[in-house]
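Regression test case RT-17, inverse folding.

Input:
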């Protein structure tokens, strides 16, 4: 049987054009979804890379091009801190995007980090996601667009190397092995079943790991960003020239 080599799409972008280029792609994707459906479910990435992209989405022309009231916002992962904490991905999105949208606001489904544990948080978030998106399990979940970053260790969302991911779950209680802080993350099953997935990776510090990912080194336990391969034809990688340094594109 012929093995289907599905190539993913890799867009190399100049650093100064990166945020606007990715924001344009997100705008186009949301617009396409809303041409066919009443709502668009959008899962946001955390960390520092997406901040400039969210700011680009929050100002003209894109903030007016997107009918935010028909967008459902979710987080691909969250640090287990209050939403007022500078480490919070919710806070980062609030400051870079939500606070600038005025009344044209999306439905916001943040992780409830006030609950007693990340295990309770994972159960509650899974319930909130299913109630917003419909369906009764991860098998029936299909987000419209998922944004993901990648760490230098090959993690994505808060799926870190060596993490044990519970089968058949939408999200799980995670730990960042570098600083032992608690996190909540959507599972690969929830993230990579999406209609579209956009990875955003910039900086020379990520070049070596990107080379390993695209060379299919290790496996998804060791390099969790390799989970993209299960959805390769639905994935677009936006990488800047620094992150692309070690790739032959
Ligand atoms: C998080 C993210 C995480 C991030 C990568 C890259 O909460 O930190 O979800 O997966 O995307 O660590 O982070 P930077 O964009 O800061 O390099």
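Golden output:
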């Amino acid at each position: 049987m012929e093995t289907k080599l599905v190539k993913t799409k890799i867009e190399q972008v100049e650093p100064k054009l990166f945020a606007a280029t990715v924001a344009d792609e997100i705008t186009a994707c949301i617009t396409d979804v809303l041409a066919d459906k009443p709502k668009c479910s959008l899962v946001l990435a955390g960390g520092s890379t997406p901040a400039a992209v969210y700011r680009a989405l929050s100002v003209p022309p894109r903030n007016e091009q997107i009918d935010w009231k028909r967008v459902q916002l979710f987080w691909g992962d969250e640090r287990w801190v209050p939403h007022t904490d500078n480490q919070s991905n919710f806070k980062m999105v609030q400051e870079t995007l939500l606070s600038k949208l005025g009344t044209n606001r999306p439905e916001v489904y943040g992780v409830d980090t006030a609950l007693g544990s990340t295990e309770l948080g994972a159960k509650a978030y899974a319930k909130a996601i299913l109630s917003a998106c419909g369906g009764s399990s991860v098998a029936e979940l299909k987000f419209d667009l998922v944004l993901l970053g990648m760490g230098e260790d090959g993690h994505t969302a808060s799926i870190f190397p060596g993490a044990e991911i519970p089968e058949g779950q939408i999200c799980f209680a995670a730990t960042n092995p570098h600083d032992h802080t608690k996190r909540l993350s959507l599972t690969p099953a929830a993230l990579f079943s999406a209609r579209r997935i956009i990875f955003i990776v910039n900086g020379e510090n990520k070049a070596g790991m990107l080379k390993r990912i695209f060379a299919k080194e290790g496996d998804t336990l060791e390099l969790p960003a390799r989970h993209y391969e299960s959805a390769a034809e639905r994935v677009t990688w936006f990488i800047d020239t620094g992150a692309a340094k070690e790739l032959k594109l």
